[in-house]
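From the shared-data thread, chain only:
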Amino acid sequence: MNLEEQLINQYGRERHFSVPDGYFAEFNHRIMGMLDEGSSVAAREVSMWQRVRYKLSVAAMIAVMLGVGVYSHFATAGGNAGSAVASSRSQVSASASALDQAADYIMIDESDMYAYLADN
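Structure, as tokens:
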């Protein structure tokens, strides 16, 4: 005896769940009757600052990174080649710390950055 036959023998073929007649025909009218006309949820207003905050913060971070890069380029242009290698290593750490400082200043964290990148 297989599993299906065992289940039929134990529980039978009777359907235990049913839907009243006309249930779905009147469904929309009953749901609309339950809704209160005055309880509509008002749309949340988004200020101009909230719309452009992420774009401005990314633009500020890019400007800081470019500024650090230009400054370090001109600061090392007068030095010799050996100091340029050491300077390039410090430049990477300086730009990373500058990025961290800029992110702290504009109060943006990784999740905000990821959300901005995902939206665009």
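The chain has a mean pLDDT of 78.
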